[in-house]
Amino acid sequence: MKQRTIARAVEGVGIGLHKGMPVHLRLEPLDAGSGIVFYREDEGVSISLHPDFVVDTQMATVIGKDGVNISTIEHFLSALYAYGIDNLRVVLNDGEMPIMDGSAASFCMLLNEAGIAEQPAGKEIIRIKKEVVVREGEKYVALKPSKRAYFDFAIRFDHPVIAEQRRNFIFSKKAFTEEIARARTFGFLKEVQYLRSRNLALGGSLENAIVLDDTKVLNPEGLRFEDEFVRHKILDAMGDMKLLGRPIFGAYESFAGSHDLNHRLTLALMANPEAYEVITLRVDESREFAKSFA
Questions:
Q1: Per-residue pLDDT tens for 25-51?
Q2: Can you tell me whether residue 264 is helix, strand or coil?
Q3: 259 carries an active-site annotation
């Protein structure tokens, strides 16, 4: 397997979830070994993608440096994970990624437009050797050794539309684009009203999120999948695991996980050198793993 960037620069415009203002996004190729680098052109600050730069996880994954932040990066990062992008410059003119339709589908379209370019350097991955778990009451997130890369997520909400949902997603780019990428973020009407009272979620609407009242989905078109809620949780988890900078050869499992627990999981993994190794796969191994990104 080889490292990947995009074949050519592409750009787009979308609304920021919290400020409700247009955000200009430009993706540019980077050389092998550069990693994912966000650049706030309005502030002149670059922020490398790394768990140490996560500054907030309350409502989204937010990275920051020198007092300059970029929020709601997880949907975009899930697309980078699925497409196997290792090196990329992400240029923004504001402090949040555009929310698009609340899923990763628009970012997949942008990457398709850019095309994928393989680079001469070998692709590094993180092989999970020992289980790492982070718990908070009954909630937990975990990374475990596995011969297949998959995400197993379960949720439980006291709401008639969601109730209990579980999905085991065996990772591949094709499966991601068909089963996960279109799953939208979701929230409850009473939460939206509270956030707007604090001048947050000003860009949120039925066009970019599933909104529920106490009994039903308010979006007139309904759901894209019966279990769209847990599918979106997998999307979020993939984006949060992309903070590690390399694909995971192992299993992610969770019950009621969150951005905060995911961030704590990446820190716990990095703090335990015996739990993982960074490797370039052997030919016989990489051939099968490479098929996941085809």
A1: 999 999 999 999 999 999 999 999 999
A2: helix
A3: yes
- Considering only CA atoms, which of 14, 6, 3, 8 is closest in space to residue 207? 14
Report the pLDDT value the prediction gives residue 200, as an integer from 0 to 100.
67
* Residues counted in the chain: 294
Using DSSP, state whether 142 is helix, strand or coil. Answer: strand
Nearest to 102 by CA among 236, 212, 199, 226: 236
Q: Are 289 and 249 in contact (CB under 8 A)?
A: yes
Q: What residues does 5 pair with on adjacent strands?
A: 117
Residue that the structure tokens 């939460």 belong to: 191
18, 75, 232, 259: the active-site residue: 259
Contact 42, 157 (CB under 8 A): no
Q: Of 78, 80, 81, 49, which is closest to residue 64 (Cα–Cα)?
A: 49
Helices 74-83 and 105-114: crossing angle, nearest 10°?
50
> Is residue 174 a contact partner of residue 293, using CB atoms and an 8 Å limit?
no
Percent of the chain surpassing pLDDT 70: 97
Strand runs (DSSP E) across 175-238, as ranges? Answer: 186-188, 210-212
Query: ∠2-252-283 over CA atoms, to 5°?
Result: 25
Residues 6+ apart with CB under 8 A from 109: none
Here the tokens at position 205 are 């609407």
What's the pTM value of the predicted model, to 2 decimals? Answer: 0.96
Catalogue the E-assigned strands of 86-234. Answer: 88-92, 116-122, 124-128, 132-136, 139-144, 150-156, 164-170, 186-188, 210-212
Q: In angstroms, rounded to a whole number, what is the distance separating the alpha carbons of residues 186 and 90? A: 25
